[in-house]
Amino acid sequence: MPTATALDQATAMIEKTWGQPIEILEVLAVRRPSDDPVLRSAMHVRAALAITDNAVSAHQTRLHALTRPGYVPAFFELERITSSAADLRVAHAESQTYLQSIRRVVEAREAAVPAAPAPAARLAQAAVARSGHTPHHPGHAPGPPAPSAAVGPSAPAAGPRR
């Protein structure tokens, strides 16, 4: 059973967070970028991840071809095996970095969405707003009114000093 690639993981994460298929989200990110800039960011990172994911697949295919069972590589192919393995490690690290970036974007979106207050708290806030009064607590006397701000200078200015 093949394991999920970083692109598959990113797609699933984005679809779960925004609650829509990736095809719809791609259209929304392009046509209405100002509606959800966080979605646009996630889709940009996903596009970069798609490129890196293709590079991972290409390097894996090349490495598997050079190291297939029963095949003895020639001496001059050892350099190609080594460079393909190094390129695969770099591409895989880039994929993981892009995936981590999408995780951070998703976390930022979740942190930015305000938690809905309880229904009773919303009803109490609405009642207070309709009544035009601020709630006062029993046993507390209202504080003195705030002094009005002075309009002019606080003291007469002295003439020029010599």
Structural account:
It is elongated, with a radius of gyration of 31 Å. The chain contains 5 helices and no strands. With 162 residues, the chain is mostly helical. Helix 2 (22-31) crosses helix 3 (37-66) and helix 3 runs antiparallel to helix 4. The model has no long low-confidence stretch (mean pLDDT 83).
Give a short account of the largest sheet: none
Number of distinct beta strands: 0
Q: Estimate the global geometry from the Cα principal axes.
A: elongated
Measured as a percent range, the helix fraction is: 55-70%
The number of helical segments is: 5
**What is the beta-strand fraction?**
under 5%
Multimeric state:
single chain
Structural class designation = mainly alpha
Helix-strand topology string: HHHHH
Q: State the distance separating the first and last CA atoms.
A: 93 Å
Q: Using only CA atoms, what is the Rg?
A: 31 Å
Overall average pLDDT: 83
Low-confidence stretches at least 5 residues in length (pLDDT < 50)?
none
Short summary of the structure?
This protein is mainly alpha-helical and 162 residues long. Helix content is 62%, strand content 0%. The protein has five helices and no strands.
Descriptive keywords:
mainly alpha, 162 residues, single chain, 5 helices
Describe the SSE topology.
Elements: H1 6-18, H2 22-31, H3 37-66, H4 78-112, H5 119-131
Helix pairs in contact: 1-3, 1-4, 2-3, 3-4
